[in-house]
Amino acid sequence: MQADMVLWRRHLHRHPELSFREHDTVAYVADVLKREGIEVREGVAKLTPEAKGTGLIAVVRGTQRPSDRCIALRADMDALPIQETGKPEFCSLNDGVMHACGHDAHTAMVLGAGVALHRMRHEWSGNVMLVFQPGEEKEPGGASLMVKEGVLSDPTPSSIIGQHVTPELPIGKLGFRSGPFMAAADELYITVQGKGGHASVRDRLVDPILIAARLLPMLYEVAERAVPQGEPMVISFGKFMANGATNIVPEAVSIEGTLRTFNEDLRARLHELLPRIAQEVVRSMQGKVDFRIVKGSPVVKNDPELTARMRAVATQLVGEGNVVDMDIRMGAEDFAYYTHVMPGCFYRLGTGNPTKAGTQSGLHTAAFDVDEDALVIGAGMMVAGAMNELV
């Protein structure tokens, strides 16, 4: 399946689509599956009741003997708003959009696993659900919509497997972690309202830039003081917008950031504490503040028993020396939603290769690429993992 997966991956890479706009992507996936004779359900994961969903569910059925058992394999399909550099032979054709997180490879590998299992269907029993979801990179997260709509049914999977390409791991290696693996992630949106005007009459103004500049260090300090010793937490702000000029103090400042936690009690405490502190600080300087928290993906919880079985499969596939332990990651992943309704295992697939350009560039960077030789390993891991669960 390697040549097919490279072909699929490169087509998807040339034609990336942003979250919840994956119309051509899902049509391409559906066409590949239908040509193989695999049954599909299209139009799932609707962002609004009126929208056409850009998710797809497919079911591959083993025919060796009757069985209701089912395991799910998941792929995400959306790209990122990044202008690509490099890879002239199959660079993105969509200006300002690229697959900088490997979702093209994820989709190609689940396609490869699904097609391989379908062609081998007389050799195994049970069902494998292929979950092609939209919007992993954007709230509310395509996985949350899949769960909310109840489309993971008929048949209902007993567990789900997902993987993510990782440039920090060399090609040939697979990384696992049991239990909590990736952080819960929330988005922070703050608007500080002041009284703008000409910079020469500061005594008549309430400067929202000054207020915001004092507020941010306070939020960092308060959040860090609230964290129990040894508990991982990240608060960070990446966007600060003050639309003034050299002689204009603006009316308002907008700030956007993220909060990452592994503990739901701490998460809830910070959701209460941060807006309250912001109100106190801003009011003390005669301003007003709107502090909005958009709750995102929960913690990815890898089921210990399922993860142990997948690790054993990986050892058989690539050898014990190529199966490594992963640390917890403060990055978020909406695969988490699946792990809160069924046992799940989310692992890392090494795609780094110092001899191939871009394959050691970080995720979400303009030069990101994967070593396509890893596609066989990732798809093979999914086939072997699914068959291990269905035997």
Overview of the structural elements:
The two termini are 23 Å apart. It contains 9 helices and 16 strands. 32% of the residues lie in helices and 27% in strands. The chain has 2 domains: 2-183 and 299-390, Aminopeptidase (3-Layer(aba) Sandwich); 184-295, Alpha-Beta Plaits, CATH 3.30.70. 46% of the residues are buried. The mean pLDDT is 97. α1 (2-14) packs antiparallel against α3, α3 packs across α9 and α7 packs across α9.
| CATH architectural name of the largest domain | 3-Layer(aba) Sandwich
CATH topology of the largest domain: Aminopeptidase
Q: Helical segment tally?
A: 9
Number of domains: 2
CATH homologous superfamily classification of the largest domain:
Zn peptidases
What do the pLDDT scores average to?
97
Which band does the percent of strand residues land in?
25-35%
Helical percentage: 25-40%
Unreliable segments of 5+ consecutive residues: none
Brief sketch in words of this structure:
The chain is built from nine helices and 16 strands. It folds into two domains: 2-183 and 299-390, Zn peptidases (Aminopeptidase), CATH 3.40.630.10; 184-295, Alpha-Beta Plaits (2-Layer Sandwich). It starts with a helix and ends with a helix.
Which structural traits does this protein have?
391 residues, alpha/beta, Aminopeptidase, Alpha-Beta Plaits, 2 domains, eight-stranded mixed sheet, four-stranded antiparallel sheet, 9 helices, 16 strands, 32% helix
